Amino acid sequence: MPASRTFDRSNIPSLLEKSKDFDKDERYMAVSDLTGVLSSFEANQGASLDASLERRVCAAVLQRLDDTSNDVQSVAVKCLGVLLTRVSDESAGTICDKLCAMVIQGKEELRDVYGIGLKKLIGSVGESSGGRVAERLVKRLLGGVQQDNEVGVKTECLDCLDCLLLRFGGKPEMVPYHSQIMSTALTQLTSKSPSCTPATQKKSTVVIATLAVVVSDDLLFRLVQSLLRQITEGKDDANANTLVKAVCKISTTVGYRLGKQLPQILPIFLQFTSPSEAGGSAADSDADSDAEDDNNTEKKNSIRESCFSGFESFVSRCPTEIAPHLPKIIEVCLAYMKFDPNYSYDSDSDAGEDDDDDDDDEDAFDDYSSDGNDTDDDDSSWKVRSSAVLALTAVIDACRTSPGLVWDAGVADELLGRFKEREESVRVAVVKAYTRLVRCSVACAAAGGAGSSAGGEDMDDVEMKDADES
């Protein structure tokens, strides 16, 4: 055994023969040793494969992808990742085609292995041949996404497509496919096909956001307008939430480039976060339970959470374009950071005024069990409150050099009033937001509006210490 483990170039012909052995263990060891030999080439700069041997090695390893043993197939995928960096562009293209075909048509139990191998291949291929390899892969991957296959095929193809866009999305060879990638991914967001699940929608959203970075301004405009049109025309809250998340994800990746379209985006987001829907008490919630089921409430809360995440992203990445809309964003943030329809804070104070201690304890327990304990597992309103506070914190940061707008809107008093928040993570966010406002205001006043950037850096350091302590 030690002799067969010696990674020497002269061992390659014998390893290729052993890779065809009837014994699966021999085939496994042969491919594993071949991987070691190829890896050793990196340490030995003078070592390389001649054209004839290269073709033989590629053919042997690719053949093992169809092996009857899953273990042999798995080690063959690993070997291809090493082999790819040591072969010609033509051989690299052949490897890409085969591995992509296995992702789409291979064994289901090994699909994740094939996907990992293909993503490693995309990360390993050289820049000089990257454009040509990407062009070959994008056609096959789009075909895999468009086929009405099982969920695993779509998700793996979308994952590989995202890696391809990250590495080679801006290559000239990929530009002609940008529009097709966009339309394919958009279709997956709202498709009613059984193979289109929340998992494929999430992957499609990631692909769209990655694509948005490399597309032209014109195509980016069309992409966002298409999403907004589907949001306004759609009647399904689940689809609306997916589309809203896509817009938010695009904002995160393209930043200021989305600023020109904020006048069209914000009114739609504000429709889902109307302050009039943020009122109500636990009693109101009980009265409305017959009219609105829990599933519908969950969907609405999910959309609201996504919208506030969008507000946070817009404020952080498009500060100039968002400035005229800050008063309205502050208004909805203040309304929804108090959005807690399943809990009555008044009952706590009333219980504290009871003269009978025993009755007081019993009443407090009853209030807790009826208003909180029975619904906490299904209560998603805390996520809305949390995202609203985070968006408000982004507004405070945006106004750090002139916090008068924030103070005039009564943000400080409203934040103080939310120190009673029952959800710990939300309460911590409220305290941090208030602390941030005070620090920004003090630094701005001390500097007279000048040098606030330096003061802001100091505040960031202090805030990091506060976060560590909490």
Question: What this model shows, in words?
Answer:
The chain has 470 residues and is mainly α. 73% of the residues lie in helices and 0% in strands. The protein has helices at residues 12-18, 24-43, 51-64, 70-83, 89-105, 111-124, 127-146, 151-168, 178-190, 198-214, 217-233, 237-254, 262-272, 282-288, 294-317, 319-322, 326-336, 345-352, 357-373, 381-398, 404-408, 411-417, 424-447, 452-469.
In summary, what is this structure?
With 470 residues, the protein is mostly helical. It is built from 24 helices and no strands. The longest helix is centred in the middle third of the chain and has 24 residues, at 294-317.
Strand content: under 5%
* Straight-line distance between termini: 57 Å
Order of helices and strands: HHHHHHHHHHHHHHHHHHHHHHHH
Total DSSP helices? 24
**C-alpha Rg (nearest Å):** 29 Å
Helix content: over 70%
Number of distinct beta strands: 0
User: Structural class, from helix and strand content?
Assistant: mainly alpha
Shape, per Cα inertia axes: elongated
Main sheet, how many strands, which sense, barrel?
A: none
Overall mean confidence score, pLDDT = 82
- Identify low-pLDDT runs: 1-7, 43-47, 281-292, 362-375, 449-470
